[in-house]
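Title: Prediction job returns without error message
Component: structure pipeline
Severity: low
Priority: P3
Assignee: unassigned

Description:
Job completed but the reporter wants confirmation the result is attached to the right record. Sequence as submitted:
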Amino acid sequence: MLVLRPFELTMLPILAFTTLLTARSAAQISPTPIPLELSKPLQDKNFYFLSLIERDAKLRNIIEQDLALKAIANTKRACLAGLFGKLDFSHVEALGDLKFTPTEVAIVESRLSGLLRAQTTHDSVKSFVSRLRASGASQQFTELSDEKFLISAWRSACEGVNRVIDVYGIQKVAARSAAIDSPLYTVKNTLYGGMLKTLAGVVAESTPDDVAFFVPSLKAATELLQVQLRDEAARHEPMESGLNAPAYKRAHRVDFAKYPYSCILVPGFGPEEANVRMSPIGHLELELAVRRYRAGKAPFIIVSGGYVHPNMTPYSEAIEMRRCLIDEFGVPSEAIIVDPHARHTTTNLRNAARLIYRYGMPFQKKALIVTNSYQLADIAAPSFAKRCMSVFGYLPATDYNKVSNFDLEYKPALNSLTIDPIDPLDP
């Protein structure tokens, strides 16, 4: 039996409060199986954590009034105001002033922890953490305590902001996949510095005096993606009220028990030729997928592939596949789900898992990949799992089982909901 000494009895309220803070919350909150609200698609898809703070009036006010965080806000606003005078056609390094320094990152971590622990602000911060957990946007960290969960989400967001400034602004860091993700306007362009000078002036003019500490850097990062025409992540969003509206509405009426699979996934296999809308191999893959669909294997075909090959192509693999399914094969639009954002085979599977979960399909049910034998072998190989762990830090799919030369069944993984701002073209 536990016996408490007299001084420990006086500590009970504090002990109980500390226990509340350190208790694991993962078992209490599951991600809500609905699409994320994307009022600012480019910002929201990359930095949902920061967007959620902006939408939370109570937490935003707490952050704006916190003296340590206000000091960072003032520093970043001063940096932004000074950029117009520092940037010119040959010097763009000053843009780095908007990056979060290691000291600033540590201060934010300390203050977020302090605000979560303080009794006067705990409820507001706790409520925010619960909403962030429910969004699934930081699902990879969901097993952590509230404090570590909050800090991990912040670290991911600030690392993403810094990387956008590095890759698409200063350009001393290469994009993760430089052949397809590089900036359109490079520092070698004689007009580039002038473009950044104008960008800094526009962002400074549109940034109020009283803002959260992250706003100046966040606005600059999203504007950089816009001016570089690297807004691929935001294109066609929100999907559930656009191209995917018929399928999204139908998903809630389908009796999935009648099908062996929740969906058929066709990963993109884009052409490298500038004027080719869709590769011949992609057309053959669709023919295979349609056969499985008409045989009753699944109620939906997910076509996945972004604006990828060749670099800066005007054609999305997935949208071209959707057009082909409707025009050439007669598949109804309500049976087609489009992912026009994936840029790699790894993100084909990750994005499909997101759609399966957020569109309300049974997540424990297996899905079926239909693709060419080369891509199928790549996905089924141990090296693919290693690549996913290297890129994501988790596996977006498990339980692979080869059904035929062109068919691979698998189970989607819930960590796929996690937003990855290190890959801003498809986070």
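Comment from assignee: result matches the submitted record. Confidence is low (pLDDT under 50) at residues 1-27.
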